[in-house]
Amino acid sequence: MATIKDVAALAGVSVSTVSRVINASGYVDNKTEERVLAAIQTLDYRPSRVARTLVTRRSGTIGLILPDITNPFFPEVARGAEDEAYRHGYNLILCNSDWELEKEILYLGILRQQCVDGIILVSTKLTEERLAEECRSLPSLVVIDRTITLDIHSISSNNVGGAVLATEHLLSQGYRRIAHIGGPSSSISAQQRLEGFRQAMTKADLPVEPALVVEGDYRLDGGKRAMARLLAMTPQPEALFCANDMMAIGALEQLNEAGLRVPADIAVVGYDGIALTRYIHPRLTTVIQPTYQMGERAVQLLLETIKGNENYQHIELEPRLDIRESSFRRGEP
């Protein structure tokens, strides 16, 4: 295997000149650079990533911590991040925290030990105080899917506004007894979507019955269990707004098992806009988040910080409502 000394000897330059060419640091005239690059190609020289990290203090890697890789929402975030990282010559290291605080902290430490250049974090458990503490020893950081007051880049979707869109749509169809299956109470996005639901109901002069608001866990089984609780009520709800699509699909399964028709007996609206919602029956009305763009923009912000730009941004993207068959009284848009 060729070494940097072999490249220097073939190109007729010093080792330090080869290093400057490889790391794009310092001046090297065009003819010398061409000789070095030709030598690298001839010898098929591949610089040691470890050695480069020690010299440049850059590893060319970005860490991404997601809470649930089985939820199709998060792979879409990962795809946007990976595509943008690849365009800029970076690799992505993926970690799955399973919605657990201990795993979030563990993976932050592991990525720090791996000398990643930056971290993208989707966190529902870390408080701002703990996050500020962790940031003291972390490289560049971007937080996704939650608003934050720290001097850290953050990207979120307008969860309150998206929930208002979903609820107002159900109200426009004439539904009044509307239930809500929310996410974990510790989740900022779940809190915001519940707030949007409350705002829309209050604006319509309708009460939010505590019994019609059930906490879920953003997972299929959680949505199914929550729907079973709602169906045990008398009278049953006329419509349902779920804080994410996975719980909405779980709720649809429970409704099917109970012999209830959607939307003839009960209307259902989800949140996130995962691809699966277009292929179930009936097709699920959902609030679509700009998921791919969130991952893509997160990498862009990281790279700006790595370059020394510390003008931190708190970006809020707008979701949109995609109305399909699951939420119309007659089942026809």
Automatic annotation (TrEMBL):
The alphabetical list of record keywords is: DNA-binding, Transcription, Transcription regulation
Q: Where is the HTH lacI-type domain?
A: 2-56
InterPro entries given for it?
Cro/C1-type_HTH, HTH_LacI, LacI/GalR-like_sensor, Lambda_DNA-bd_dom_sf, Peripla_BP_I
Domain HTH cro/C1-type: from-to ranges: 3-46
Could you confirm whether the keyword Glycoprotein appears in this record? no
Pfam families in alphabetical order? LacI (PF00356), Peripla_BP_3 (PF13377)
Identification of the protein by name: Substrate-binding domain-containing protein
Write out the GO MF terms: DNA-binding transcription factor activity; transcription cis-regulatory region binding
Determine if Transcription regulation is one of this entry's keywords. yes
